[in-house]
Specification:
4-stranded antiparallel beta sheet, globular, 16 strands, mainly beta
């Protein structure tokens, strides 16, 4: 823990509260620091490289970043929990733009697919929303019934072949969908020995 605090250049009274972590194509680790409202970058050998963001209302600042994703060009997408939106930054942490403002509920998970589309689990609206890398909504996958579709999806993970995994609040807490949005596998809570 001390080594992490030294690497992150955090002073007394500041904590490193990693909420989301992601590796980029160069092997650098990016960490969303929820309580400190910043994104930190570390080299593959653990050395601090840079950080961006801080508490504030201007576009380049962050308010409770809770997850991140990185596209094939190295651009960094950050979920900003307080404002219920996503901000896009360059690989060096320069603010580019934001999207999803007024469209999304409280969100916690995003993933980038093989075409650099941004998939977002939106439990409040019972859907998965797909944006292109310019922040324009491409389509939504809306849950129709709990047994076969979605029930408040809280996590999303895009697989390299175009299929995807969803974690939701149904009895089948983990679901595997194919490229046509057909449910092909589900793992029930009971089979994992988990309670409600």
């Amino acid at each position: 823990e001390i080594r992490i605090l030294e690497i992150a250049h955090l002073g007394v009274g500041h904590t490193l509260a990693p909420q989301g972590i992601q590796y980029n194509k160069d092997g650098n680790l990016l960490v969303a620091n929820y309580d400190n409202h910043r994104i930190y970058s570390f080299s593959p050998d653990g050395n601090y490289q840079f950080h961006f963001g801080e508490w504030g209302n201007s576009p380049e600042k962050l308010q409770y970043p809770n997850n991140i994703a990185i596209d094939s060009a190295g651009s960094i997408y950050v979920i900003e929990e307080k404002n219920k939106n996503i901000k896009k930054f360059s690989p060096e942490g320069t603010y580019l733009f934001q999207f999803g403002i007024g469209e999304l509920g409280m969100i916690f998970s995003l993933s980038i697919d093989h075409r650099d589309n941004v998939w977002v689990a939106d439990p409040e609206h019972n859907r998965i929303v797909i944006f292109n890398n310019k922040g324009t909504e491409v389509r939504s996958i809306i849950g129709q019934n709990q047994s076969s579709d979605l029930n408040q999806p809280v996590s999303i993970y895009c697989l390299p072949n175009g299929a995807y995994l969803v974690g939701d609040r149904s009895e089948s807490m983990l679901k595997h969908f194919d490229t046509q949005d057909t449910l092909i596998y589900k793992a029930n809570r009971a089979s994992w020995g988990l309670d409600e």
